Each structure stands twice: as structure tokens, then as C-alpha cells.
Amino acid sequence: MEIVILEDAAEIGRVGADAFTDLLGRRPQAVLGLATGSSPLSVYDELVRRHEQGGVSFAQARAFTLDEYVGLPKDHPERYRNVIDRDFVDRVDFAPDAVRGPDGSAEDIPAACEEYEAAIAEAGGVDLQILGIGTDGHIAFNEPGSSLASRTRIKTLTRQTRIDNARFFGDDVDAVPTHCLTQGLATIMAARHVMLVATGSGKAEAVHHMAEGAVSAMWPATILQHHPHVTVLLDPAAAGRLQ
Ligand code: F6R
């Protein structure tokens, strides 16, 4: 695990965007793994800026998102598919249908999860996966107690994650869905390069466990210690509990 402590979110954006730009320069048809949430925004903003200047194109790339709430209507602004479109996908030049996410409104949830895994495999697997981390150490929505061998499936969100995400639902924790579909830890571990971004002191404990704690389902991000190519981009506050 390579840990890089950078000055601020803007620098994280530049270093993170370099990884995407280099990959797409070498392999324009690369398969990207996209996370929603605040952590990757500086990377996405920098990629949009470079795209607008002609420095990077996503026209031949494909992408898979990590997770989706269950039960939000298709046009709900906080549905993760709408969030990632707004934050990133619609601001660059992905081809139509090049970006997929788990279907949180599927009638047959287990079949939708299986199909999602098959689609990732059919695309040849993810070349570069960007991740955030939850304050409880979750990655995607693999909450504490998630199987380290898990694949895409339905999960119950913890109270803590619903509280953390209430800011997107008018500060009303009861408006945050109780369930999600999420790539599993084994799905994420199959990506060839994982880049995790964390900023702020609220993430410091989770970052400490991820990098220095014992590998345990109670801190799901610790599984990344077993991945051969992980880059962790931190600001000084998120690095504050590293030894
Ligand atoms: C989002 C996701 C989550 C977030 C995590 C951190 O697709 O998979 O694991 O990365 O909850 O969220 P932020 O970045 O908003 O602090």
C-alpha cells in the first residue's frame, strides 16, 4: 500500500487525475471504477478540467460504479447513478451506455447483482478503481461485518452511514434509504489498481485501521492490505492518526 500525504484536496485532485490520465493515454479503452460521495470530487473536477483542455478523453473507456441505494425513484437527485452523472459522467465524453451501475430498482435483486458481476467480468475487469472510505471503515457500502470474500449483493446500511449521508437528504436521517446494492470486497479486490482518497480528520481513525490495523471484517477497508497495487491519497488531517 503506497500512502501519499498531500497538501490539500486540490493536490489530491491533480495526483489522482494523473493516474487516470496516464492510464487512458496508454489504454484509451480502459475500464474505470467510479465512486460517488465527496472524496473523489477533486479528482473528477481535475479530470473535467483536463478534458475541456483536450488533455484526456473517455470516449473509448467504460466505467462501473460501486453502489446504489435500493428503492429511490429513477429521477431522485440522490440516486447514485444521478449523482455520478452530475458530478462527473455528463461533464466528460463517455459514450452512451459506457457507464453502468448496480440496478437498485430491479425486481429481482439477486439476479441484478449477478448480472452486474458478469458485466464487469465481460468488460475484462476494472483497471483503475477510485474509492472513498467511510468513517466506520467501509469501502463501497461494505459495512463492518461484511464478508471479505463478498461479491455484489444487497446490504443494510448502518445507522452511522445513514447519519453520515443525511446531509444529502435535507439532514433527515429517516429519508436515507436503509438498503443498498454494493460491489463486494472481493469485487473491489479484483481491480488491477485501487486508488483510495480520504480527507479530513473524520476519516483519520478509519485510515489508521486500514493501513495499520489487523485485517478484519470489522474494518472492511483493511482487506486492501492484501491488494498488490493500492495508492492512498490523504490530506494531513486524514493522515493524522497514522503512526
Ligand atoms: C460511494 C461509496 C462510499 C463512500 C464513502 C465515503 O460510492 O462507495 O463508500 O466512498 O461513504 O463517502 P464520502 O466520500 O462522501 O466521505
UniProtKB/TrEMBL annotation:
<dbReference type="InterPro" id="IPR004547">
    <property type="entry name" value="Glucosamine6P_isomerase"/>
</dbReference>
<keyword id="KW-0378">Hydrolase</keyword>
<dbReference type="Pfam" id="PF01182">
    <property type="entry name" value="Glucosamine_iso"/>
</dbReference>
<feature type="domain" description="Glucosamine/galactosamine-6-phosphate isomerase">
    <location>
        <begin position="17"/>
        <end position="227"/>
    </location>
</feature>
<keyword id="KW-0021">Allosteric enzyme</keyword>
<dbReference type="InterPro" id="IPR018321">
    <property type="entry name" value="Glucosamine6P_isomerase_CS"/>
</dbReference>
<feature type="site" description="Part of the allosteric site">
    <location>
        <position position="146"/>
    </location>
</feature>
<dbReference type="InterPro" id="IPR006148">
    <property type="entry name" value="Glc/Gal-6P_isomerase"/>
</dbReference>
<feature type="active site" description="Proton acceptor; for ring-opening step">
    <location>
        <position position="138"/>
    </location>
</feature>
<keyword id="KW-0119">Carbohydrate metabolism</keyword>
<feature type="active site" description="For ring-opening step">
    <location>
        <position position="143"/>
    </location>
</feature>
<feature type="active site" description="Proton acceptor; for enolization step">
    <location>
        <position position="67"/>
    </location>
</feature>
<feature type="site" description="Part of the allosteric site">
    <location>
        <position position="156"/>
    </location>
</feature>
<protein>
    <recommendedName>
        <fullName>Glucosamine-6-phosphate deaminase</fullName>
        <ecNumber>3.5.99.6</ecNumber>
    </recommendedName>
</protein>
<dbReference type="InterPro" id="IPR037171">
    <property type="entry name" value="NagB/RpiA_transferase-like"/>
</dbReference>
<feature type="active site" description="For ring-opening step">
    <location>
        <position position="136"/>
    </location>
</feature>
<feature type="site" description="Part of the allosteric site">
    <location>
        <position position="155"/>
    </location>
</feature>
<comment type="pathway">
    <text>Amino-sugar metabolism; N-acetylneuraminate degradation; D-fructose 6-phosphate from N-acetylneuraminate: step 5/5.</text>
</comment>
<feature type="site" description="Part of the allosteric site">
    <location>
        <position position="153"/>
    </location>
</feature>
<comment type="similarity">
    <text>Belongs to the glucosamine/galactosamine-6-phosphate isomerase family. NagB subfamily.</text>
</comment>
<comment type="function">
    <text>Catalyzes the reversible isomerization-deamination of glucosamine 6-phosphate (GlcN6P) to form fructose 6-phosphate (Fru6P) and ammonium ion.</text>
</comment>
